[in-house]
Amino acid sequence: MWKMKKHRMILLLILYILILTFTIIMEQISIMNLGLRLLVNTSTLIMALVSGFLFWVILHNRTEEKSEQRAHRKEKVSEDSRKHGIICEETKAVPDKQRFLAFAAMHELTRRETEIGFLLLNNYTNLQISEELFIAETTVKKHLTHIYEKTGTDGRKEFKECVWAALRDNIST
C-alpha 154: how far from its chain's center? Predict the structure, then answer.
């Protein structure tokens, strides 16, 4: 999508200030001269359009920057986890997919439960998992219940600890 450069943003802000100043001056003049009323109303309309556009540009740029930052963080974590297999839990990284698949097979998780479990280790929320896999959030909750039963855990935190412990022990449990 179109990206706004800083100098363009500054130019738009200057344009906005000029139109605002012009409108205030014309409003004062139009009190004395009714013939300028159309010009004042037109400049007011232009000012409203410019302010709406500026608001949209600022909002769009902030959203785009946040998306880029999220993607960069996610890319860095996955790159690190590929390099080292497993990274310490403090970095919130996840184990290598193959090692997690071995854990899932050991606990007889279904394909869908395995997908959900891996996303859970990626610190996805139930809503994010449902959006990622195109399923209802209640379906995610049901799968999580089955995952917790099969792994003998009572929740997210305990499930993650169980996975990390098994992977630290090279899945010998």
Answer: 28
What is the spatial distance between Cα 126 and Cα 120, in angstroms, rounded to a whole number?
A: 8
Q: Are 98 and 85 in contact (CB under 8 A)?
A: no
Number of H helices, E strands in the chain: 7, 0
What pLDDT does residue 1 have? 38
Entry pTM: 0.47
Dist. CA 149–CA 141, nearest whole Å = 12
- Say if residue 78 is in the same domain as residue 103: no
Same domain, 159 and 95: yes
> Residue 34 is which amino acid?
L
Number of structural domains the chain divides into: 2
Give per-residue pLDDT as tens, 131-164.
999 999 999 999 999 999 999 999 999 999 888 8
